[in-house]
Design goal:
Blueprint (H helix, E strand, L loop, with lengths): L5 H19 L5 H20 L7 H16 L18 E3 L7 E4 L4 E5 L3 H4 L7
Antiparallel strand pairs: 1-2, 2-3
Helix pairs in contact: 1-2, 1-3, 2-3
Length: 127
């Protein structure tokens, strides 16, 4: 059996991390999972053009899915830190960098790494 190349490893890891966050937010419906697959396909091409960007794939897929969900379903993921005021979404930081995480800019805190929202929120988040 041939080993999986670094690009495919990064894409599979990004898919798993974003799906874990979608499951934690209880929004992993079939149409939403399709958004993940669309992003993976686009990011595969992107990394083939710029191989040094492989470390950035998870954050970019998370941002792609977040943007697509905003257009179709509304803000995601909602901030679990701020208990009052208008509901707002978390942001991915760094926007283009390794080790992406979800942050609340309103409270100025890192909430969780991309892929770890479930552990940061006890496994359940409202969307």
């Amino acid at each position: 059996m041939d080993p999986i190349n670094p690009l495919e490893q990064a894409l599979h890891a990004a898919r798993a991390r974003v799906l874990a966050d979608l499951v934690a937010g209880q929004v992993a419906e079939a149409d939403v999972v399709s958004l993940v697959e669309e992003s993976i396909a686009q990011r595969r091409w992107w990394v083939e053009q710029w191989p040094d960007g492989v470390a950035f794939v998870a954050g970019l897929v998370a941002q792609d899915v977040q943007d697509a969900l905003l257009e179709r379903h509304g803000r995601w993921p909602l901030c679990p830190v701020c208990g009052s005021g208008d509901p707002h979404a978390l942001d991915v930081e760094p926007e283009l960098g390794p080790h992406p995480h979800w942050v609340c800019h309103k409270a100025g805190v890192k909430v969780a790494s991309v892929g770890s929202l479930g552990s940061a929120t006890g496994g359940m988040m409202s969307s």
